[in-house]
Design a protein that fits this description.
The protein is α/β, with parallel strands linked by helices and 353 residues long. It has eleven helices and 15 strands. Helix 2 links the parallel strand 2 and strand 3. Helix 1 packs across helix 10 and helix 5 runs antiparallel to helix 11. The structure holds nicotinamide-adenine-dinucleotide.
């Protein structure tokens, strides 16, 4: 499979390029990057500055859209029209309407589509999903979810403008958190949100902090906090995601800083209120996707799982199937982001449509 990568910034360098380089059936054939400096340091020989050149090439089977958010829709629609399979970065679009348009176009095209909800490939998240599916927690009652990072230079630039990013911290990292919780706990039915911009940056019109109370379709309740003004939480490998799920029979607590472990109350521990959470190692079978060519010991365990995303995309194309996280997951996530922004603006509960 010959891949074109569009955009050679942090996501492409940190996730897509190393990920596809590990896939024996994939070749990164061309890179589209208007910034010459960024392009030359990737080691890809075939570089262009206009994505239409990539899309016009018949030897390219699939593209990865890793540009700033405002370009996703335009590039994805053009790629699908040219018959390419598409892996698009999160958030899929600037709003739900655009994300739905992208999903409809992908479905019409019959091509494979995937949204880069990278943290889904964290071993502990894969294991948590299995425990939930097996009913180990019983019926879910409450969810506590947070994604916290420190303010960093990466917020400057396109991420600080609504018209380029869709929203601030919500689109940037809240999209990951919302997707993970939707995967583990199901759809969010309604929410009430609050947001703040703490940075004194006259060029920015987006929030740095968002929190919301949520009701799930199952009747479970949840709280979410998403912040990029949390000193000490880092920007990059030390950022943290916390997801706590409490059910009628047990509970589990995930932290991104412990991607090979979970704290949990399972079995008898879940029945006895005197027993504390205990640590479980993630079983071997969840440490990478089945069949992934990745050596699980070759990279920091807080980073390496990200490369399984490329492997899953290639496998989906081989199967001819768009598998989760697809554009459909991108749309479901976007619906929650839109509702949170609407609620924070109106200061009232909003149904997620
Ligand atoms: N999945 C993840 O974990 C993850 C991590 C980081 C970023 N992201 C997402 O990836 C996307 C890119 O983020 P980033 O951090 O790499 O941003 P970035 O600013 O570091 O890189 C974006 C790159 O796109 C290039 N670009 C701009 N216009 C272009 C065009 N018309 N054609 C081709 N390239 C163009 C820029 O020159 C830049 O090099 C965003 O949607 C972001 O939300 C996802």
């Amino acid at each position: 499979m010959r891949i074109g990568i569009i955009g050679a910034g942090g996501a492409a360098r940190g996730i897509h390029l190393p990920g596809f380089r590990l896939c024996p059936d994939a070749e990164i054939a061309v890179l589209c990057e208007p910034d010459q400096n960024a392009a030359t340091t990737t080691g890809i020989a075939d570089v262009c500055a206009d994505y239409r050149e990539v899309l016009g090439r018949r030897d390219i089977d699939a593209v990865v859209v890793a540009t700033p958010n405002y370009l996703h829709r335009e590039i994805v629609l053009a790629a699908l029209a040219r018959g390419k399979h598409v892996l698009c970065e999160k958030p899929l679009a600037l709003d739900r309407a655009a994300a739905e348009e992208m999903l409809r176009a992908a479905e019409r095209s019959g091509k494979v589509h995937m949204t880069a909800f990278t943290y889904r490939f964290t071993p502990a998240i894969q294991y948590a999903r299995r425990l939930v599916e097996q009913g180990e927690l019983g019926d879910l009652r409450t969810v506590r979810a947070a994604y916290l990072m420190a303010l960093s230079g990466h917020v400057l630039g396109w991420r600080s403008e609504k018209r380029l990013a869709g929203s601030g911290v919500l689109a940037d990292i809240g999209s990951h958190l919302v997707h993970l919780v939707q995967w583990l706990a199901g759809d969010i039915r309604a929410l009430t949100a609050s947001e703040r911009r703490f940075r004194e940056d006259p060029t920015s019109d987006v929030e740095d902090w968002v929190a919301f109370l949520a009701e799930f379709a199952t009747g479970a309740c949840g709280t979410f906090e998403i912040s990029r003004v949390a000193p000490g939480r880092g920007a990059g490998i030390t950022e943290d995601i916390f997801i706590e799920l409490y059910g009628t029979r047990g509970s589990l607590v995930f932290s991104l800083q412990d991607p090979w472990g979970l704290m949990a109350a399972l079995g008898e521990d879940g029945k006895d209120p005197a027993r504390p959470l205990r640590h479980y190692d993630v079983p071997e079978e969840f440490l990478k996707l089945p069949g992934s060519p990745r050596d699980i010991h070759a990279h920091d365990r807080r980073w390496g799982y990200r490369y399984d995303q490329a492997f899953q995309f290639i496998e989906s194309v081989k199967l001819g199937q768009a598998r989760a996280p697809s554009f459909e997951d991108g749309v479901r996530c976007q619906a929650v982001l839109d509702a949170a922004l609407e609620s924070a603006g109106s200061r009232r509960w909003v149904e997620v449509r």
